[in-house]
Amino acid sequence: MSLVTGSMRLAATGPLPPEHAWARYTEPRRWSTWAPHIREVDYPHAVIEPGSSGRVTGVGGVVAVFTVDTVDHDARTWSWRVRSGPLRLRFEHGVDPAAEGCTGWVVTHALWPVVAGYAPVARWSLGRLVST
Q: Could you give the CA distance from residue 9 to residue 104 in angstroms, rounded to a whole number?
């Protein structure tokens, strides 16, 4: 990391069982149901797979291409790289059991203005990820 790039971890806890939140995280066809900034996903598999790629279309028609780097179904963690024009981001995601439900989390790695700008959207999305 540097003064220009950095990372931020955000998390939200909710009543959804961990296995249900994990399915929402790992099934791209469901991303738009809990991530309001995602409008459409073009991805060849029902569940994310390491080394695979796809495209997401966001608000305003912004298109980003992505590559899934890692998926650990036992630990309920995964990571991917996303590119839209000159912007490059890397995300680590996970779902942890909580006393009543689960905690969904994300670590965003990018330029600091992008990390800070994405934080409110990520927070809102995580809250929806773990809610019934």
A: 11
- Under 8 Å between Cβ of 94 and 71: no
Angle between helices 112-129 and 18-26 (to 10 degrees): 130
Q: Are 103 and 96 in contact (CB under 8 A)?
A: yes
117's CB contacts (< 8 A; 6+ apart) are: none
Structure tokens that stand for 111 in this block:
């330029």
pLDDT in tens, 21-36: 999 999 999 999 999 9
Provide mean pLDDT across the span 59-84: 97
DSSP state of 2: -
What band does 3 get if pLDDT is binned at 50, 70 and 90? Answer: confident
H or E segment to which residue 58 belongs: strand 53-58
